[in-house]
Amino acid sequence: MSYDCSTYYCNQGWNEVISHLSPYSWANWGIAIGLGFSVVGAAWGIWLTGSSLVGAAVKAPRIRSKNLVSVIFCEATAIYGVILAIILLNKISSPKDKTYVLSSLWNWASFYFAGYGVFFSGCSVGFTNIASGISVGIAGSACALADAQDDSLFVKILIVEIFASALGIFGIIVGIIQSNNAQFPV
């Protein structure tokens, strides 16, 4: 079955749509994914930690202020996404010649490399931060419940929570390395 285009703006399929997407669009989608998923990961972790913290505080009110550290670790996940979004936004620059059609001498390979580099950098940070937020939330929930049972367990489980938060730091480091050579040509 063949689909013939009847207009100038017809695409031959998803392959053509994706391959002809502007590098600026790729870059901006990457920034949106990185920032959005980081905020979702932080919110999910805060929800997991907060619900357990409030429930466990009924039995042991002393844990309320001490276990807010778990919420702060979750919020750091969103901050990692904001930091990378600022770094990636500084990499995007528009061409000097603002014309409708760029010259045939334009460096298209560098242009697409920058767009894909920023896109996948944002994806890496967003996906690791959503995993980090969930893991910090689960560890924070366990920390609150264990602390309500036995206050000597707080520091031991907090160490596990710090390691879960390190996932987000690793993600932002990988994202910075991925986008290191991504510079839009001017």
Structure in words:
- This protein is mainly alpha-helical and 186 residues long.
- It has a domain at 37-92 and 116-179: Four Helix Bundle (Hemerythrin (Met), subunit A), CATH 1.20.120.
- It is built from six helices and no strands.
- Helix 2 (23-59) packs parallel to helix 5 (108-149), helix 4 runs antiparallel to helix 5 and helix 4 (68-89) runs parallel beside helix 6.
Q: What is the topological layout?
A:
Layout: H1 14-19, H2 23-59, H3 63-66, H4 68-89, H5 108-149, H6 154-178
Domain V-ATPase proteolipid subunit C-like: 30-88, 121-177
Protein name: V-ATPase proteolipid subunit C-like domain-containing protein
Subcellular location: Membrane
Through-space gap between termini: 43 Å
**Major sheet characteristics:** none
Kindly provide the name of the CATH class of one domain: Mainly Alpha
CATH level-4 homologous superfamily of one domain: lithium bound rotor ring of v- atpase
The percentage of residues in β strands lies in under 5%
The percent of residues in helical segments reads over 70%
> Number of helical segments?
6
Mean pLDDT: 87
Give unreliable regions as ranges.
none
Radius of gyration: 22 Å
Overall body shape: elongated
| Element pattern in H and E | HHHHHH
In CATH, the topology of one domain is named: Four Helix Bundle (Hemerythrin (Met), subunit A)
Q: What is the tally of beta strands?
A: 0
Protein name: V-ATPase proteolipid subunit C-like domain-containing protein
Subcellular location: Membrane
Keywords: Hydrogen ion transport, Ion transport, Membrane, Transmembrane, Transmembrane helix, Transport
Membrane topology: Multi-pass membrane protein
